[in-house]
Specification:
Blueprint: E1 7-15, E2 18-27, E3 32-37, H1 46-56, E4 60-70, E5 78-80, H2 82-97, H3 106-111, E6 116-118, H4 123-191, H5 198-212, H6 215-234, H7 239-258, H8 263-283
Parallel strand pairs: 3-4
Antiparallel strand pairs: 1-2, 2-4, 5-6
């Protein structure tokens, strides 16, 4: 499976504790670079989140956002321990009976440990639910990357097919082009009324044929097409390998253009370079 490095996913989670929204987005990057934006009370989640991303992804700049809204009522409900409050007041009255003149402030009584308590949320269970939500978001995120990757693969295969057609066209026309070049040179000699030894002319034509021979470049292009298709079929994190193959494609297309002696070969070389550049732009986003 070929995966794109560009993707987006969003999941909303609701519970008694409130509402949370996970967002994952990524763009192309040479290595895996995760960034996290988490509420302060969930900073401890960053390590397990980072581990999960590293197990599933190989490359890309990934931004992970969590927005958390606590549920209304639970965090604000307060409970007074009446027995504890009365015990504090009796102790304060006893101290006053011993000569203390300061009055008892009710707020001081409420601040006494154990007198006032709030209904606390079980943060462990909340974090567990948030991690489950993240797993769901990550699955959706990977599916998006896979869909984008499948689309890129289709575009690359189409362009490989076009390059193969150009290679076949050049190979088919080469004998005709060489014969055209031979007749062209002979006609120039005849026009200049220059008499040359037939054996010498044949030697020069052989040397010219060697200089403009593009069979090796065509064979290499065919080999690169097979290797690129094999890499696509193998799948996985193959972006770097495919990028290297584009460099090899470009090298052979440039050599083919430099050896051109006919407009048909020049046109084929230019078209190949356009196709290679189109593939390279797609491959920049492949994991």
């Amino acid at each position: 499976m070929i995966c794109s490095m560009t993707a987006y996913a969003r999941e909303e989670i609701k519970g008694d504790w409130g509402t949370a929204v996970w967002e994952l987005r990524s763009v192309n990057q040479r290595f895996l670079e995760p960034y996290f934006r988490l509420p302060e009370q969930f900073r401890a989640l960053e390590i397990p989140l980072r581990d999960r991303l590293r197990k599933q992804l190989q490359r890309g700049k990934v931004e992970c956002n969590l927005r958390f809204t606590p549920g209304a009522g639970k965090d604000t409900a307060l409970k007074v321990n009446e027995d504890m409050a009365l015990a504090v007041l009796r102790s304060a009255e006893w101290i006053q009976s011993k000569g203390a003149t300061a009055s008892v402030d009710p707020l001081d009584v409420l601040r006494w440990p154990g007198v006032l308590s709030g209904e606390e949320t079980d943060m462990d269970s909340v974090q567990a639910e948030l991690l489950q939500g993240f797993e769901k978001t990550l699955r959706s995120f990977i599916e998006h990357r896979a869909r984008e990757g499948a689309s890129m693969r289709s575009l690359i295969e189409e362009r490989l097919h076009d390059i193969r057609n150009n290679v076949a066209k050049v190979r088919e026309h080469m004998p005709t082009i060489l014969q055209w070049q031979r007749e062209r040179i002979q006609n120039r000699f005849e026009e200049a009324k220059v008499e040359l030894d037939a054996e010498r002319v044949e030697q020069e034509m052989v040397l010219l044929a060697q200089k403009v021979d593009v069979a090796e470049e065509l064979d290499r292009l065919d080999s690169h097409i097979k290797e690129t298709l094999s890499t696509l079929n193998k799948g996985g994190a193959c972006g770097r390998r495919l990028d290297f193959m584009m460099q090899e494609f470009n090298r052979e297309a440039n050599t083919l253009g430099s050896k051109s002696i006919h407009t048909d070969i020049t046109a084929a070389a230019v078209e190949m370079k356009v196709l290679i550049e189109q593939m390279r732009e797609q491959i920049q986003n492949i994991e």
